[in-house]
Design a protein that fits this description.
Helix 1 (10-22) crosses helix 8 (227-240), helix 4 runs parallel beside helix 6 (157-176) and helix 7 (198-207) packs parallel to helix 9 (257-271). A seven-stranded parallel sheet has the order 3-2-1-4-5-6-11, sandwiched between helices. Strands 7-10 form a two-stranded parallel sheet. A two-stranded parallel sheet has the order 8-13. The two termini are 20 Å apart. By secondary structure, the protein is α/β, with parallel strands linked by helices. 44% of the residues lie in helices and 15% in strands. Bound molecules: nicotinamide-adenine-dinucleotide (NAD) and 2'deoxy-thymidine-5'-diphospho-alpha-D-glucose. The site of 2'deoxy-thymidine-5'-diphospho-alpha-D-glucose has 19 residues, from helix 7 and strand 8. Belongs to the NAD(P)-dependent epimerase/dehydratase family. dTDP-glucose dehydratase subfamily.
Length: 355
Amino acid sequence: MILVTGGAGFIGGNFVLDWLAEHGEPVVNLDKLTYAGNLNTLAAVQSDTRHHFVRGDIGDPALVAQLLAEYQPRAVLNFAAESHVDRSIHGPGEFIQTNVVGTFNLLEAVRGYWHELPAGRKAAFRFLHVSTDEVYGTLSAGDPPFAETNRYEPNSPYSASKAASDHLVRAWHHTYGLPVLTTNCSNNYGPYHFPEKLIPLVILNALTGKPLPVYGDGQQIRDWLYVKDHCSAIRRVLEAGRVGQTYNVGGWNEKANLDVVQTICGLLDELKPRDDGQLYRTQITFVTDRPGHDRRYAIDARKLEQELGWKPAETFESGIRKTVQWYLDNQPWVQNVVNGAYREWTDKQYPLQHA
Ligand code: NAD
Ligand code: DAU
């Protein structure tokens, strides 16, 4: 049994689906179901007896302690976070609450549980913290990609809150001996991605005839990784990562934002041409830049490859085609997000639990 937090979100949801499909070990899924949590993502495992969903907060130590005592997991994987940079600029409070205070409370509850485990299970236990490349700050054009040894230089409220959580995780290992692993991944894309982020937003806006907003000059660079590859990396780190180590995860896929948007437009022109015969790229609109916008991220994933033999399965070209096709094929999931129906259902079905 493993305990996953944030498993109704984009990456956590993909992780739970892939875990149950490929691994089979039961999962307790603790998710607060904020606006970013969507149980429709988990529809395929709704009646799977190996999946135990609990609506609750990682910052509720009594609830977490109760779940740990009840399910006795061999590992806790922490995906739960506020994750959107633009939201962190408009309202940083929730980011501090969940990403910093929430991670602290989670660590404390896990430490209490882990401390009482018998020796064998104690040694085998893992706390895997899912983090981001944004903690390293920004790169200039000629800089080498981020290695695990880079200094932390976070620039947004989001990345600062994730950096703080990484530091807490590190300290709980050094001070208390908690067997932790941390992964720092680059930008993910793929199925079930909430359409506030660049790639799903552009796909949906294109299909509904809306402007495709490109911040600033569109020459900011991100290093894109297909979400299923991130999930396979996490499984591998959980399986064989060295306790106390951090692993950078990336797909060697640096792309300028404008190129990403134009690629999506080209795929839609091929797969679902506009009724009026125009090209989707005519919808591209340059808008005001994000404050403090990091110019370039790039990940050096050699440690993960050399130590643990992990490699991504998708190139950007294969992954982005799959992604565009997924959004075309999964309109019910998309429409439930767009019209907000997923929230109404969530609130009716799952009141927030406390211990
Ligand atoms: P997401 O916003 O799609 O999902 C976050 C999930 O966490 C949601 O289901 C939400 O309901 C849940 N959640 C939020 N606050 C909670 C709380 N207090 N208690 C319990 N559950 C809570 O995020 P994502 O894109 O899936 O990212 C998952 C993790 O991966 C985050 O830690 C993020 O920082 C990290 N990450 C994301 C990316 C990316 O490109 N999306 C890249 C690298 C790392
Ligand atoms: O690098 C990993 C990070 O990637 C994760 O830690 C974050 O959780 C995740 O949200 C993502 O952050 P970004 O800010 O890079 O992702 P986003 O999709 O918001 O933006 C990608 C780039 O596109 C960024 O340079 C801003 C730009 N952008 C974004 C939006 C939403 C636009 O130009 N237009 C847009 O409308």
